TrEMBL record:
<dbReference type="GO" id="GO:0043041">
    <property type="term" value="P:amino acid activation for nonribosomal peptide biosynthetic process"/>
</dbReference>
<feature type="signal peptide">
    <location>
        <begin position="1"/>
        <end position="19"/>
    </location>
</feature>
<dbReference type="GO" id="GO:0005737">
    <property type="term" value="C:cytoplasm"/>
</dbReference>
<keyword id="KW-0732">Signal</keyword>
<protein>
    <recommendedName>
        <fullName>AMP-dependent synthetase/ligase domain-containing protein</fullName>
    </recommendedName>
</protein>
<dbReference type="GO" id="GO:0044550">
    <property type="term" value="P:secondary metabolite biosynthetic process"/>
</dbReference>
<feature type="domain" description="AMP-dependent synthetase/ligase">
    <location>
        <begin position="1"/>
        <end position="160"/>
    </location>
</feature>
<dbReference type="InterPro" id="IPR000873">
    <property type="entry name" value="AMP-dep_synth/lig_dom"/>
</dbReference>
<dbReference type="GO" id="GO:0031177">
    <property type="term" value="F:phosphopantetheine binding"/>
</dbReference>
<dbReference type="Pfam" id="PF00501">
    <property type="entry name" value="AMP-binding"/>
</dbReference>
Length: 172
């Protein structure tokens, strides 16, 4: 899913029911997407209207954000998987790396402690990283937890310098 309010809500919903979040880049070729879904044994793909046609309908269930879908939750334990990130595959086949709730929490806590003098509830934080990169979680969670404003660029907005500059100027 592209950077959006739906993406943020989707990540929070996935984690809150004890499910595992695995970001997929809607710009990737269909073969790579299918391979990653197979590698991670994904059962569901959470999509919005703008990304629905980019994902192949295969042995997965597509959950559209416009539907009222119910997924059973389970208790969330610190050593359970929280999210899976996939390597780029530039040195061979891509690999799925599993991160636990504990590691996610520790990473966010460390970043908040390190940036405590940087972030405040009055700040506006720009999310630049693609949603399929690990960094997007670290750009997203600290502002949400500290009460800062999270600014989500439109898809491709981090590469459009005119748009990027305009957003920076408007958000100062």
């Amino acid at each position: 899913m592209d950077r959006s309010l739906e993406m943020v809500c989707g990540i929070l919903a996935i984690l809150s029911v004890g499910a595992v979040y695995c970001p997929l880049n809607p710009e990737d070729p269909p073969a790579r997407i299918c391979s990653l879904i197979s590698e991670t044994r994904g059962r569901f793909v959470l999509l919005n209207g703008s990304t629905r046609d980019r994902f192949p309908a295969s042995a997965i269930d597509i959950l559209l954000l416009t539907n009222n879908n119910t997924i059973a939750s389970k208790p969330v334990c610190e050593m359970d998987a929280a999210y899976i990130l996939c390597t780029s595959g530039t040195t061979g086949r891509q690999k799925a790396i599993v991160h636990t709730n504990r590691s996610l929490s520790a990473s966010i806590d460390a970043l908040i402690q390190w940036d405590l003098e940087v972030y405040t509830s009055q700040d506006q934080v720009l999310q630049v990283a693609s949603c399929s990169w690990a960094m997007h979680l670290l750009e997203m969670f600290p502002p949400l937890l500290l009460g800062s404003t999270l600014i989500l660029l439109r898809p491709g907005g981090n590469l459009d310098m005119i748009y990027f500059t305009r957003v920076l100027m408007e958000q100062q």
